[in-house]
C-alpha cells in the first residue's frame, strides 16, 4: 500500500515504483490494493458525513455511515434501482442490505444474497436489457432497450460489487471489460467518448460465433464477392418487429462489398455491433460503474483481471476447500466430518455450487482461490433431526453430529436446496 500511495503522489515523476510496471504485480496483490483503496474511500466519505452532521449541530446517527438499501423480495429490481438512484451521494459508503419483513442482520450475508438475486433478475431475457447468446453462453447489451438510467444503475451495481469485494455470477464476454477500461479513468471532458475500444473479429467470435464465422467465410471466399454475395455497406437490424437499416459509412447503401474492400466492411460491421449500435447503453453502464469504482488502482488492471475481480472463478475445487477448512467442535478425523467430505466430493457440480452458496452467500470462488473463503465447519449441539445451518456473514456451516452418511446427505441436500431467506435464532 505504501508503494501504491507513493505512486499516486509522485505520478509520472522519475521516482521508481513497481506500480509503473503492473504486469509484475499478481492479481491477488492488485485485489488487496483495490480493497484497501476502497476501504480508505469508505472511511473518508463516512467521516465527511459525520463532520457535516456535527457542523450543522445535528445528532449523529450510525446509519449515516452506510449505504442502506431496503428492499422487498417481491419488488427486488424496482426497489433496488430506486434506492440506488435516490442515494447516489452514498454509493461510496459501506453497503448494508435489509429485506423488508425479515429479521436478518447484514454482516455480509444479506448483501451477498441481494447481489445474487438481483443479477439473476436483471439479466433474465424477459427484462430486456441484455440479450443472452446461447452459442457463446454470454450476455450482451440490447440495442433495443433505451432505458439508459437503468444501464447506469446496473453499472453502479457491478461497481458496488467490486467496491464491497463481492463476486458476481455475470457472463459478459472479455470485450466488455476491455470497453470498461476505455479509458480506465473517467475523462474530465464530458463530450469525450467512453467505452469505445478497438474490436476485431475475434471479439465478435466470443459473443456471436455464428455471425463471426459467416464474416470469416466472406474474408476467405475465393470467388467474386460482389456478384455472389450482392452486399453493400449497409446492415439491417430488427427492432420491435420493424427492420431498420444502418449505413456503415456515408452512402454505404450505394457502395458494394467487393474482394478489395471486404476487410473494411467486416471491420466496420464488427465496430458497429460492438461499439456504435450500443454506444448510449454502454456509456451509461460505464459511468455507473466508475461512479462507484473510480480509482487510480484501475490503471493497474488488464481487462481479464477486471473480469476475475467482478466474477471470481466458476471453477470449484472441493478438494482445495477440504484442505483449507477450519473446524470448531470437530476434528477433521471425526466420523461426521468424514461423512461430510465423502458426500460433498461425490456431489454434482450443481449441488456443490448450492452448498457454496448456502454456506458463503455466493457460488463463485474469490481471486485467491478456495483458501480465501476461510470456510469453517462448526459442531451444532442440536438434535440430528435438524437441518444444517449457515452463517454466510462468516462463511460458516453449523453441522449437527449426524449418525451416518445417508442421514447427513439427506439433510444436507434438503438444507442447501431450500436456502433463500434469513432469520434470527
Automatic annotation (TrEMBL):
Domain HECT: 87-425
CDD domains: HECTc
Biological-process GO terms, alphabetical: protein polyubiquitination
SUPFAM superfamilies: Hect, E3 ligase catalytic domain
Active-site residues from the entry: 393 (glycyl thioester intermediate)
Function: E3 ubiquitin-protein ligase which accepts ubiquitin from an E2 ubiquitin-conjugating enzyme in the form of a thioester and then directly transfers the ubiquitin to targeted substrates.
Protein name: Probable E3 ubiquitin-protein ligase HECTD2
Source species of the chain: Zosterops lateralis melanops
Lineage: Eukaryota, Metazoa, Chordata, Craniata, Vertebrata
Amino acid at each position: 500500500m505504501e508503494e501504491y500511495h507513493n505512486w499516486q503522489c509522485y505520478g509520472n515523476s522519475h521516482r521508481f515504483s513497481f506500480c509503473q510496471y503492473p504486469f509484475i504485480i499478481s492479481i491477488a496483490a492488485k485485489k488487496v490494493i483495490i480493497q484497501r483503496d476502497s476501504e480508505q474511500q469508505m472511511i473518508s466519505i463516512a467521516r465527511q458525513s459525520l463532520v457535516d452532521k456535527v457542523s450543522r449541530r445535528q445528532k449523529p446517527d450510525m446509519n449515516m455511515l452506510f449505504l442502506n438499501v431496503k428492499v422487498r423480495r417481491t419488488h427486488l429490481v424496482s426497489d433496488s434501482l430506486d434506492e440506488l438512484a435516490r442515494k447516489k451521494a452514498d454509493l461510496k459508503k459501506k453497503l448494508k442490505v435489509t429485506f423488508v419483513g425479515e429479521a436478518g442482520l447484514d454482516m455480509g450475508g444479506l448483501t451477498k444474497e441481494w447481489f445474487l438475486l438481483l443479477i439473476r433478475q436483471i439479466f433474465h431475457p424477459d427484462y430486456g436489457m441484455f440479450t443472452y447468446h446461447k452459442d457463446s453462453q454470454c450476455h450482451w447489451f440490447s440495442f433495443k432497450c433505451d432505458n439508459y438510467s437503468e444501464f447506469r444503475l446496473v453499472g453502479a451495481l457491478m461497481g458496488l460489487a467490486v467496491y464491497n469485494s463481492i463476486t458476481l455470477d455475470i457472463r459478459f464476454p472479455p470485450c466488455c471489460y476491455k470497453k470498461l477500461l476505455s479509458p480506465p479513468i473517467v475523462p474530465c471532458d464530458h463530450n469525450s467518448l467512453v467505452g469505445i475500444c478497438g474490436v476485431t473479429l475475434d471479439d465478435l467470435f466470443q459473443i456471436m460465433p455464428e455471425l463471426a464465422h459467416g464474416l470469416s467465410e466472406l474474408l476467405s471466399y475465393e470467388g467474386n464477392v460482389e456478384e455472389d454475395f450482392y452486399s453493400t455497406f449497409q446492415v439491417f437490424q430488427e427492432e420491435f418487429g420493424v427492420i431498420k437499416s444502418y449505413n456503415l459509412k456515408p452512402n454505404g447503401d450505394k457502395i458494394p462489398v467487393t474482394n478489395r474492400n471486404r476487410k473494411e466492411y467486416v471491420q466496420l460491421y464488427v465496430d458497429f455491433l460492438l461499439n456504435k449500435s450500443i454506444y448510449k447503453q454502454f456509456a451509461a453502464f460505464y459511468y455507473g460503474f466508475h461512479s462507484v469504482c473510480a480509482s487510480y488502482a484501475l490503471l493497474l488492471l488488464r481487462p481479464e483481471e477486471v473480469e476475475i475481480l467482478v466474477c471470481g472463478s466458476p471453477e470449484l475445487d472441493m478438494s482445495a476447500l477440504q484442505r483449507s477448512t477450519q473446524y470448531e467442535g470437530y476434528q477433521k478425523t471425526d466420523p461426521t466430518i468424514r461423512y461430510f467430505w465423502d458426500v460433498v466430493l461425490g456431489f454434482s457440480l450443481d449441488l456443490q455450487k448450492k452448498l457454496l452458496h448456502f454456506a458463503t452467500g455466493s457460488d463463485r470462488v474469490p481471486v485467491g482461490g478456495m483458501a480465501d473463503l476461510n470456510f469453517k465447519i462448526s459442531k451444532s449441539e442440536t438434535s440430528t433431526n435438524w437441518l444444517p445451518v449457515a452463517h454466510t456473514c462468516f462463511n460458516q456451516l453449523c453441522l449437527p453430529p449426524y449418525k451416518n452418511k445417508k442421514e447427513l446427505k439427506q439433510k444436507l441436500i434438503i438444507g442447501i436446496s431450500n436456502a433463500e431467506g434469513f432469520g434470527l435464532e
